[in-house]
Design a protein that fits this description.
InterPro entries: YibE_F. The protein has 498 residues and is of the alpha+beta class. 56% of the residues lie in helices and 9% in strands.
Length: 498
C-alpha cells in the first residue's frame, strides 16, 4: 500500500547496469537492421538515378508561345457581354463601364452568340486590352472586376489585327500567386506556432520529400526505370529523411521507421498485383493519352503503380509514429506493465486510429474524384459496375491498397515498439510523488488521455498491471468508488469513515 512511496525515487532515478546493457543491445539491434537497409537504399538510388535526358520525347508545351506571341498578365477593369463575331482588338472609345464606341463592329450584328470579354489593364503598362474569356470559364466560374489573369497576346502576330474577326487577346488562366502564397505562409505559421521547432523541421522535411519526388521519381518514370523499385527506393528515402529530421534520432523513431517500411512493402506488393490483375492502364484519361503520345518509354501502368505506393506515404507515416509514441508514453507512465498488457493498451489506441484513418483515406480520394463521381451518378449505372469501371477503379484500388498497408502496419509497429521499449527501459524518471495505475478509472479508449493527464506529475507505479494511471496524492473522497476499492484492497470491506 505505502511501500511504493518510500523507495520509488532511488529506484527510478538511475537505470541499473542490466537496464543499460539491455538498452544498448536493443539500439544495436535496431541499427543492425536499419543501417544496412539505408545503405542498400542509397546504393539503389545512385544506380537508378535518372540521367535527365529527354531524348525520344516529343511534346508541344501549351505554354511555349510562337514567335511574336507572348504571355502577359493584367488586372480586369470591367466585364461585358458582346457578340462573338466582334473583332475584339480595338479598345478605342471605351467608356467607364467598358462599352466600346458605336463605330465598333459587332455590337449590333445579328446571327452570332454572345461572348464574355474582359477589359484588362496590363501589368507591364500601356492601354487597356480586350481579352476574350473561354466559354467554359465564363460559364463555370466567371471573371470579376479586380481579378488578375494571364492572357495570350497575339497582337504582334502578322495578320492578327487586320479585322479578320480573330481576337488579339485570349484568356489563359487566373493568376493565383497571392492567395496561394498567403495560404502557404498561414500554414507555416500555424504549424510552427503549435508544433514549434518540430513543426519547423517537419516543413523542411516536406521540402526535401518533394525534392526527391521531382528529381528522382518523376524523371525516372519518364526514362522508363522500373516503377516498383522507383517507388520503393524513393519512398524509403523520403521516410528516412522525414522521420529522423522531424522527430530526431531515437529508438522511438527507428521503431516507427521499421513499421513504416513494413507497411510500405505490403502496399507495394498489393499495388503491383492489383495493377496487373485489374488491368489498370489509364484508359480514357486525357493526361495518360498525352503521356503515351510523348514517348514509348513512358508506361502508364507503371505510373499508376508508383502513384498507388506514394499516395499512402503520409497516412502510413502518421499511424506508425503515433503508435510508436503511444507505446513509449504508456510505458514511461507505467513501467511495471507487462509486455502483453502494454501491447493490448496500445492496440486499443491503434484500433481507434485505424477506424479514423480509413475514413480519412476514403474521403480524401472521394473528394479528389468528385467530378468523376458526379458523371458516374448521372449515367445511372449499377453500383458494382460503376465502382469497377475505368473511371473509378483506380481510386477504389488506391483506397483499398493504402488501407490494407496502414492497417497491417499498426500491429507490427506496436509489437516492435513494445519489444524495444521493454528492452531499453525508461530513461531517467524525475522524482515526484508516486502515482498508481487502476484499470477501472478509464474505458478502453481513454488510455492515452488518462496517461497524458498525469504525464507531468512524475513517477508512475501500477497496482495490478492496469491500463491507465491515476494520481493518489490526495485522499479518496469518502463514499466514492475509489474509496470503496481502496478499502477492499486493504481488506476492510467497508468504506473509510467520513
Amino acid at each position: 500500500m505505502g511501500h511504493g512511496h518510500s523507495h520509488g525515487h532511488s529506484e527510478s532515478s538511475e537505470p541499473t547496469p542490466q537496464a543499460i546493457a539491455s538498452r544498448k543491445r536493443a539500439n544495436w539491434l535496431l541499427a543492425a537492421v536499419l543501417v544496412p537497409l539505408g545503405v542498400l537504399t542509397v546504393i539503389a538510388m545512385m544506380v537508378m538515378w535518372p540521367s535527365g535526358s529527354r531524348d525520344g520525347i516529343s511534346f508541344a508545351s501549351p505554354y511555349q508561345a510562337a514567335p511574336g506571341v507572348t504571355f502577359d498578365t493584367g488586372k480586369i477593369q470591367s466585364v461585358v457581354q458582346e457578340s462573338c463575331t466582334q473583332t475584339g482588338q480595338s479598345t478605342q472609345g471605351q467608356t467607364d463601364t467598358g462599352q466600346t464606341d458605336t463605330g465598333q463592329t459587332g455590337a449590333g450584328q445579328s446571327g452570332g452568340s454572345d461572348c464574355t470579354f474582359a477589359f484588362t489593364q496590363p501589368d507591364k503598362g500601356g492601354e487597356v486590352v480586350k481579352v476574350v474569356i473561354n466559354p467554359d470559364v465564363a460559364k463555370s466560374h466567371g471573371v470579376d472586376v479586380g481579378d488578375s489573369i494571364r492572357y495570350l497576346n497575339l497582337s504582334g502576330v502578322q495578320g492578327a489585327s487586320q479585322g479578320n474577326g480573330s481576337p488579339s487577346y485570349v484568356f489563359v488562366d487566373f493568376v493565383r500567386s497571392l492567395p496561394i502564397a498567403l495560404l502557404a505562409v498561414l500554414y507555416a505559421v500555424v504549424v510552427i506556432a503549435v508544433a514549434r521547432w518540430r513543426g519547423f523541421r517537419a516543413l523542411l522535411g516536406l521540402v526535401g520529400a518533394y525534392a526527391v519526388l521531382v528529381s528522382f521519381i518523376l524523371p525516372g518514370l519518364v526514362e522508363g526505370k522500373p516503377p516498383l523499385m522507383l517507388a520503393l527506393v524513393g519512398s524509403t528515402v523520403i521516410m528516412i529523411g522525414v522521420l529522423y529530421f522531424a522527430h530526431g534520432f531515437s529508438a522511438r523513431t527507428s521503431t516507427a521507421l521499421l513499421g513504416t517500411i513494413f507497411g510500405l512493402g505490403i502496399t507495394a506488393l498489393l499495388a503491383a498485383w492489383a495493377t496487373d490483375a485489374a488491368n489498370l492502364a489509364g484508359v480514357g484519361d486525357h493526361d495518360a493519352a498525352t503521356l503515351i503520345n510523348m514517348s514509348d518509354k513512358i508506361s502508364i501502368s507503371g505510373i499508376i503503380l508508383c502513384g498507388l505506393i506514394i499516395s499512402g506515404l503520409g497516412v502510413l507515416n502518421d499511424v506508425t509514429i503515433t503508435q510508436s509514441s503511444a507505446v513509449w508514453e504508456l510505458y514511461e507512465l507505467a513501467p511495471n506493465t507487462s509486455a502483453r498488457k502494454l501491447f493490448s493498451s496500445a492496440m486499443r489506441i491503434g484500433r481507434d486510429h485505424i477506424a479514423s484513418t480509413v475514413y480519412t483515406i476514403a474521403f480524401a480520394y472521394a473528394g479528389a474524384a468528385l467530378p468523376i463521381l458526379i458523371i458516374v451518378m448521372l449515367y445511372d449505372r449499377p453500383l458494382a459496375e460503376a465502382l469497377t469501371s475505368a473511371e473509378l477503379s483506380e481510386e477504389v484500388i488506391r483506397t483499398l491498397v493504402g488501407s490494407i498497408g496502414l492497417v497491417l502496419a499498426i500491429p507490427v509497429t506496436t509489437l516492435i515498439a513494445v519489444l524495444v521499449v521493454k528492452a531499453t527501459g525508461v530513461k531517467g524518471a524525475v522524482p515526484a510523488p508516486a502515482l498508481s495505475v487502476n484499470p477501472d478509472d478509464v474505458d478502453d479508449t481513454g488510455t492515452l488521455a488518462a496517461a497524458a493527464a498525469v504525464v507531468g506529475s512524475g513517477r508512475v507505479e501500477t497496482l495490478d498491471g492496469g491500463r491507465s494511471p491515476r494520481a493518489v496524492g490526495k485522499p479518496a473522497r469518502p463514499g466514492s468508488r475509489r474509496a470503496q476499492r481502496e478499502a477492499e484492497r486493504r481488506g476492510d470491506g467497508e468504506n473509510p469513515a467520513p
